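Box 4.2: Ligand-aware structure prediction
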Amino acid sequence: MDLAPLLELPSLGDGLSRLEPVLREAVGSGDPFLDEVVTHLIAAGGKRIRPSLALAAATSRGRRATREDLLGGVTVELVHLASLYHDDVMDEATMRRKVESVNARWGNLVAIVAGDYLLARSAEIAASLGAEIAGLLARTLAALCQGQVAEVQAAFRTDRSEDHYLETIAGKTAALMATSCRIGGLTAGLPSGEVEALTAFGERFGMLFQLRDDVLDVMADAETLGKPPGQDLAEGVYTLPALRALADPHVGQELGRLLGRPLDVAQR
Ligand code: GRG
């Protein structure tokens, strides 16, 4: 995704560079091993989309990001990081952000507990920002889990539908992006109408972001993706492009042949 137009916003570039030390400070435990594990993916990069959304929302009226705004961005990035740690355990992924995944390097137990630790830190920061943000963050965590369970469930169902897919991505991706925008609006103390509009923008941005990701999984080459294309279907994840393709029995048969196992034809 080309974030350049967003990053050209002077206030956002300033906020993102000031976010990094706050992010590292937030995960510091004093234990050298835990610190190494929890900074592994922070150091590896990542696009910082969720804090970008929070900071863009918070500075949308042109003011400089405050420490509260930065902490809002940190709290959502920590949730995202925790979800990556846990997701890689579930998928047995070996690479993340172009480096070895945490589970591949230190094992599943460490990856799960380190993900839990990141969530705990995120919750602590959200609580410091007030009850409204703490409650919002907790509801978003529930939505992420529901989205993830819905995705796993789809692999065992034959009545897969586009509605089910849309519900899945609303939970696993769009909920946190909507919350990122909302938190930015809240830490900046914007009027409620603006907070609602920013939240609606974040939700739609998140849906489109995941749709694009899923289309790229079937259309892009291995080099662009950093993994073999068609990985979603190979893992039993039925995304919208796969559902559309499988609705044609010939395409479904061909995909099944390529993957070496029969695939269910989606019902729409
Ligand atoms: C532990 C919070 C928590 C949840 C448990 C594992 C799980 C339930 C949910 C996983 C949800 C998940 C991994 C959704 C995919 C989200 C997504 C679009 C990831 C890629 O985001 P990018 O492209 O990644 O912003 P970078 O690396 O750039 O930050």
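In the box above, the bound molecule is geranylgeranyl diphosphate. DSSP finds 14 helices and two strands in the chain.
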